[in-house]
Structure formats: C-alpha cells, structure tokens
Amino acid sequence: NMSSKNVVFKKISKDKSVGVYMGKRDFVDRVDSVDPVDGIILIDHEALQGRKVFVTLSCTFRYGRDDVDVIGIAFRRELYLSTRQVYPPLQDREKGIHSRTQARLMRKLGDNAYPFFFEFPDNLPCSVCLQPAPHDVGKQCAVEFEIKAFSAESQDAKVRKRSTVKLLIRKVQFAPESEGEAPSVETTRDFLMSDKPLHVKATLDKEIYYHGEPIKVHVSVTNNSSKNIKNIIVSVDQVSTVVLYSNDSYVKSVAIEEFGDSVSAGATLEKVYTLLPLLANNRERRGIALDGKLKHEDTNLASSSIIKEGVLKEVLGIMVSYRVMVKLIVGGSVPFDLCCSEVGLEVPFKLMHPKPDAGKKSSPEIEEEMIFHEFKRSYLKGMMADDDDEEGNVSGGDEAAPKEK
User: Fold this and answer.
1) Of the residues 29, 323, 379, 387, which has the fewest C-beta atoms closer than 10 A?
2) Model pTM score
3) Ranges for the Arrestin C-terminal-like domain (predicted)?
4) Per-residue model confidence as pLDDT tens digits over 60-115
C-alpha cells in the first residue's frame, strides 16, 4: 500500500548535475489558498563544474502544434514564471525548509541537497486541456504547470538540455465543503394571439455534482397559451472560456435527452429528466475540455473552475463552467402551422471531484519508509508535454540515486 505521503518522485539530469525530488505532483487550489510547491534539488559538484543551479515554476498556455507552426512561431505563452537560485544558496539551507517531506529528504540526501519553495499567485487557472480531434496528432491546447531545474553559468545563460530536468505538475480543485442552494430557473413567455402565457421551471437537486453522477432535472411546464409544445430537449453544456489575447467561449453539449414530449395548449407537464455527462460518450470530439490527468485512461471532463472573488478579470488560460439547458420547441396554434419558436432555460451547476480523504494524517513520530519513483512522462499521459526533451528527462536510475546515509 503506497500511500502518497511516502512516495517521492525524482528525476535527474542527463549530465547528473541536478536532480529534483518532490513529495507530490498534485497541488490543491482551495480558492482562498493553494498548496505551495516544495521539493529538494540535489547537486553534484563534479558534474556542476562551477555552474549555478536554478529552479523555476511556470504556468504555460500551449495551443497549436507541439513545436512551432509553419511560420516559426511557437504556440505557447507563459502565463507565469518564477525563478529561484538554489545553488550557491542565497540563505541558510535550514531556513529554506517548509515541509516535513523536505526535512526528511534533506536528512536522507545529505549535504548536497538544497530546498526550494514556490507559492502560486491566485490568478492562475487549473491544469486543463482541450481534447484534440482524432486526426490532430501533436496538436494541443492546454494549461500546464512545470517545475524545471537547471545548471548554468547564470540565470540568463544558454541552458543545455542535458543539464535540465523538467517535471510536469498539476494544479487541481475539488468540490468545496459548503454548497450553495439548489439552482432553479423559471421563465414566463407571452405569445402573440394568445391571452395567457407559457410558464416553464427547471430545478436541480443540488449545486455541485461529482463526475459520473447522474443529474436529475425537474421540469415543470404550465402551458396556458394557445400554442402547442412539440418537443422538449434537455442537455448539459460545457462552456470553455479561453482567455488569451481575446475572450473566446466554446460551447459543447456533453449530454442530451430528447423524448419528443409534447404539451398541448392548456395542459401541464411535470417530468424528471436524467442526464449523465461523461467523457466516455464524447471521446472523439474536438475541443471538449478535460482535466489534466496523470494517466490518459482516467481523465475526465474538465472540472468547473472556481475563481477567487476579485481576480476573475486577471485570470488567463482556460476556464470551464457547466449549465443544464432546457429547450421547448413551440409549434403553431393550429395544425400545419409551420412557424416554430423556442423557449429556453439555462441552469448553472458545478461538476467536480469530491475532496480526497483528508483524514489520513500520519503521526510525526512514525517514520515511514520513503519510496523513490522515477518521474517519467508515462505518469502524465493526459497532460501534453514536450516530448522533444524526453531524452534529457531520462533519470539516471539507481546509480544516480544518492547513497543511503
């Protein structure tokens, strides 16, 4: 049973000058605060040959092809970049320790281990990508977070690939503990040549649904008009807002139910429709937003983005929201009247993962064994990555692991 608290992810540069050790790859955004990113850089003086060591935390928006497009412009924009000098240290090594994992790693890895620590600003999106079409090989639109460590003469000097280590990490959000009230929307529509209106109401059981959970939509129609309702279509829309140079919204229906229900003039209808928005039913569709996931198999529709109040205007990247759409197709008041109109309702809701069990805190006295994992791309299939640097990412294996102290 490898609980995540004992697992340490490590990756060592090809020239062995720098190695990165981290206790986790997922960092939770609780809206009012985000887990800090911390770890240890292990240096090898012989391989360093007098160079300095730096570590960066970046958030990048990639769009288009992996490398460069036809006219040589890289399709990537750095939304955030923070750099720290790790070696020579700018402060006492002990002062840089912020977590128990760091302290334990420093003891285990010895005198050439140096801590690093970053905090996320609060205007960044979470890890998310848009599903490419089946034939769009190598094309990707994604928000990605990365820790990069490298050795160089100075921060701005040219960095050699073999002296660089890159680790993709994720920023994730879970459903908040407290929930708003169950969403309910209603509308009244008057028609020409009709004395009385049509009244429609749609209500959900709650505000937050978990991935894979059916959504019950309670629809109530009171048709006092002289028109006939010919059909009722109930669906879930995923709205992805891509904020980069402009503000583009992409709306994709990810679940739909249509039974041909009709409500004649003067009649009423009370019905519960059940919708199940799942990635499994939307696999081949281009532009569906997905959560950045560790393995491609268990990725899912992107979770709703919850943005801290006051920073919405500053957030760049991809933001995701969901709504239930209830659409009534209204026919004429006489048979064969071909003039149709629509009456629609939008009911917003959130689609998220529950918070993982937070109750599994170990007592500090118990020193569990640390398990070291090579940090390889295969962990992050759902996230797109620079596979051109794969060769520079290969860890040195056990011969590069420090000797037990």
Assistant:
1) 387
2) 0.80
3) 194-356
4) 888 765 555 555 555 778 889 999 999 888 877 777 777 888 888 888 888 899 98
